Amino acid sequence: MSLPQSHLKTKCFHLICSPSRCIDLVKGIVAKREKLMANAPQGSRLLPQPLFVWEPVPDLCIPDELNNCYEALQYVDVISPNHVELASFFGEDISLDDTKLLGRLCNDLHTNGFRGSGAVVVRTGKRGCYVAEGARDTALPAYYTPVDDVGENSLSSEKVVDPTGGGNAFLGGFCVALARGCQIEDLSIVETAAVYGSVAASFAIEQVGMPKLGSSDDGTELWNGASAFARLHEFEQRVRPGGLDAIRKASKACSE
Description:
Elements: H1 5-8, E1 12-17, H2 19-38, E2 51-56, H3 66-73, E3 78-79, H4 83-89, H5 99-112, E4 119-123, E5 129-133, E6 136-140, E7 144-145, E8 155-156, H6 166-180, H7 189-204, E9 213-215, E10 221-223, H8 228-239, H9 243-247, H10 249-255
Parallel strand pairs: 1-2, 2-3, 3-4, 7-8
Antiparallel strand pairs: 4-5, 5-6, 9-10
Helix pairs in contact: 2-3, 5-10, 6-7, 7-8
């Protein structure tokens, strides 16, 4: 593994790999950071512990790799498979709406994997994502809602053109918010990062290929003609109370 010195100072690393490769990467990054600090001038500012977000590769989300997955979780802060990949580790079939099974599988990863605190962030396509942090499980909606489910506080998915890249964009926005420690009132830091991720994904799926970057007359950065911060604020209003009661349906189901 070769990383420029500037990259070694990164606050959050997004790893897309197998369980064994994940362990090797984390160990390698930590060792290189320790060496960097050991060679730094006396009195230099210490580097904070980095955050590791692991996205397992789909073809190795299989029962034979489950024990390796448990081991890899001891080295990361967040694991983020999609719902099919998560279920595949356990040899299960799952639907988008089966939050009870999602909760059980996430609880298994917490019980057998993470050393201490950790989060399972399951990407559930048009349903959004499922955030499991130990005893706190939350189902957060996607920015765009399936046409049949559109309500007073949601936006129709008619603007969705191509979902390709949505998961990558989600985790990009997620990692930025996690690294910055952003937190929306009444949400955890991980839940907040998922909100940022959902907004990032919304721009990626509105067209085939990359979203269009532009700017307004006052210099505000625009993606597909919209402000990311304005969209974030609007989505935040949807997922905060009383909307929060509606999106935490999973909590009660998993505790029963």
